[in-house]
């Protein structure tokens, strides 16, 4: 599962609620959860919102995909 989706579910947020907090659309959150890489500004907003790092959210996804191949 995508790390962003894991965090969103852990915090009991819908895509719509998370999007509102970040100032983006729910569709954009959905795209990120399906593998789209967000712009740096959005990635930083996401990391700050969940009190973690950009690397933890987005590089963890890449490491998981690489180890599965």
TrEMBL record:
Domain HTH cro/C1-type: 4-57
Keyword DNA-binding: yes
Record bears the keyword DNA-binding: yes
GO biological process, any: DNA-templated transcription initiation
Single GO MF descriptor: DNA-binding transcription factor activity
Keywords, alphabetical: DNA-binding
CDD domains (UniProt xref): HTH_XRE
Protein name: Transcriptional regulator, XRE family
